Amino acid sequence: MPPDISIVIPLYNEEESLPELLAWIEKVCTENKFTYEVLMIDDGSRDNSWNIVKQLSEKNPNIKGIKFQRNYGKSPALYEGFKAATGNVVITMDADLQDSPDEIPGLYKMVTEEGYDLVSGWKKVRYDNALTKNLPSKLYNGVNRWFSGIKLHDMNCGLKAYRRKVVKSIEVYGEMHRFIPVLAKHAGFNRIGEKVVQHRPRKYGVSKFGWERFINGFLDLLSIQFVSRFGKKPMHLFGALGSLIFFLGFVLIAWLVVDKLQNNIPLTNKPAFYISLTVMVLGTLCFFTGFVAELVVRNAADRNAYLTEEKIRL
Ligand code: UDP
Ligand code: MG
Known about the structure:
- The protein is elongated, with a radius of gyration of 25 Å.
- The chain is of the alpha/beta class.
- The longest helix has 29 residues, at 235-263.
- The model has no long low-confidence stretch (mean pLDDT 95).
- Helix 5 packs parallel to helix 8 (212-230).
- 49% of the residues lie in helices and 12% in strands.
- A 7-stranded mixed β-sheet has the order 3-2-1-4-6-5-7, with helices on both faces.
- The structure holds uridine-5'-diphosphate and magnesium ion.
């Protein structure tokens, strides 16, 4: 029998928070009579975090753990947690006590009773620095909503709940933990909901993410949209774009040739001549990049990996 809930917790140097966090989770799950497992993914902590996890796991058999050899990042930690999770509902939570375990029953209910595939927490009232965290995060979520079409206020909230099938169908790699709802949507899970959750100030330790997160995050968002649309058919993008660029260059040069025949000014006296040549070369390069990308895709190990929803007699 799988447990009701798997709680996946990525952690990196969070020693002070762990005893309180795990005791609180235990309390909530016992009170609500959930069967559960807690997967503590230690992302290469340099402090005493892992020893504390080991000690606590001796007292509570529901605590399981993985320790990375070095610090890989939050996404790889979630990836391993999702791989190991067995619960019907999978809940992710930060280790720094900024997310409240009291939200677990409500999130669980939204997945099991209200039919959501994924429920994202929304830190409506947020206890982080207004200038470095809250304001940029608002802008960022606006861009995300616009690009992805997913109407979430707080896409990157660490507190989320998933139907098990969702976490088994997506691959959180690089720094893609910021865009799990986008990954889920592209995998075909459309029932994405939101729950206002209680947020708490960071009591111990420091934030692990600095300003680079905006640049990396934006580039990741572009990649994710590109891969999901053209990942299996890159020529449709590069071919169309390359042809268009080439055509523009060609039209320009044709016009210059007609102009020369009429007025007899040498082509080489005109800057537009060199510009049109360059544009045609760029178009050609773009077109052939499409062929190269197709070759890469044809050889990718997962080129014929499709997610199935149901099967009959197969
Ligand atoms: N984290 C991690 N690996 C990292 C960075 C962060 O596992 O390389 C964990 C961290 O320990 C915490 C969660 O990811 O449990 C969120 O990190 P943090 O609280 O620093 O982010 P913030 O709340 O400041 O956005
Ligand atoms: Mg935090």
